[in-house]
Each structure stands twice: as structure tokens, then as C-alpha cells.
Design a protein that fits this description.
The protein is of the alpha+beta class and 194 residues long. It has three helices and twelve strands, in the order ββααβββββββββαβ. The strands form four sheets. A five-stranded antiparallel β-sheet has the order 3-4-11-6-9, with helices on one face.
């Protein structure tokens, strides 16, 4: 299998990807049922293609007025504002939202802050999450394996894997997930595991 370097990192990724333009109808008639079936197979395979331009270039702020794109025009979500909103909400999770639609930041990607003050519930869901420890230290039990973490560490929770987070003192986890994609395809499920 052909592999490519991932930017300047030592990591290599598969050159094989899934192109979806033919599903848009641009190249002729698109079959919705067939397209959804292909997307389901691709999600089961869990592969992707790395864009040849690994680093995005910053540009001017995008206008919100008359915004019609499916993703959020807000390109920066301030830590101080989000953390204050998380603390003020009294809830353990704060979802980042598109200020125009109130939905997720992108049609297929969600982002959230999670406050971990003790032990969270043991749960699992059909989405995939990538976490970065924003503040504090603790541990997560993922699929029965213990992972100790501290500020700036990154870890993931794969689809339908039981997990639980725990911190001795307050910790905050930032995460990206594919929950919006799973929900749009009616594939999202969540389960408390006791």
C-alpha cells in the first residue's frame, strides 16, 4: 500500500482515500441509496485521505451576515470565553456551536469541553472522539485499559468502546468528534454502562 508522510512528522498514512464528489450530482445523476450505502461502508472502514496541503493558511475573519456555508463562520473559539461558559452552565459538557445555525461547528465534526471533577459515568457511543487535556491531570479507562494523562496530552476513544474519565482535582478535556456525521446518518447511539 502506498504511504505518504504526514506533514513534517515521522508518521505515515495511507494514500488511499474516499472521494465523494460523484455523490453530489455534479458528474451526473446521483443515487441517494447507493451513496448512503457507500458512506456506511467507508465509516466502517475508518479511513481517510490527508490533503496535500497539510497546514491551513490563516486568512481574514469571515463575515457572518448572509453566511450560507455549512460550517461555522467563527474560526476561533476563545478558551477564556468557552471555559467561563462551561463553569457558568453547571453542566459537565459544553458543545461548541455554529453561531449562525446553533448546530455543530461543522456538518460532520463536533467539538466540546468536558469538565472532569471526579469519576465520570462509564459509557460508550458510536462516535469517535479525540481528546486533548486542556487543564489538569487524571486518567481514563478505555476499553478496560488505563491511560494516565496530564495537560497537553492527546488520546482517543474509538467507536463503541466503553470509557470513563477520572480526575482527583478539576480537569478540562477538549475534544473533536464525529457525532454530527453519525447523527446525520442515523447511526449515533449512546449507552450508559453502569
Amino acid at each position: 500500500m502506498e504511504m505518504r508522510a504526514l506533514g513534517k512528522s515521522p508518521f505515515k498514512v495511507s494514500a488511499i482515500g474516499l472521494g465523494l464528489m460523484s455523490m453530489s450530482g455534479i458528474y451526473g445523476n446521483a443515487n441517494d441509496e447507493e451513496s448512503i450505502r457507500v458512506i456506511h461502508y467507508a465509516l466502517d472502514a475508518n479511513f481517510y485521505e490527508v490533503h496535500r496541503d497539510i497546514v491551513q493558511k490563516a486568512g481574514p475573519a469571515l463575515p457572518r451576515e448572509g453566511w450560507s456555508k455549512p460550517y461555522s463562520p467563527q474560526m476561533k473559539y476563545s478558551w477564556h470565553v468557552a471555559y467561563a461558559a462551561l463553569k457558568a452552565s453547571g453542566e459537565p459538557i459544553l458543545e461548541y456551536t455554529n453561531p449562525v445555525t446553533g448546530g455543530s461547528i461543522m456538518p460532520t465534526i463536533g467539538a466540546r469541553l468536558e469538565l472532569v471533577s471526579r469519576k465520570s459515568k462509564n459509557k460508550r457511543n458510536t462516535g469517535n472522539s479525540i481528546y486533548q487535556v486542556a487543564v489538569g491531570q487524571g486518567r481514563s479507562v478505555i476499553g478496560g485499559e488505563v491511560f494516565e494523562w496530564q495537560e497537553k496530552d492527546i488520546f482517543c476513544v474509538p467507536s463503541w468502546t466503553e470509557y470513563q474519565h477520572e480526575a482527583k482535582e478539576e480537569a478540562v478535556l477538549f475534544s473533536f468528534n464525529d457525532f454530527p456525521a453519525m447523527k446525520a446518518l442515523a447511526l449515533y447511539r449512546e449507552q450508559d454502562c453502569g
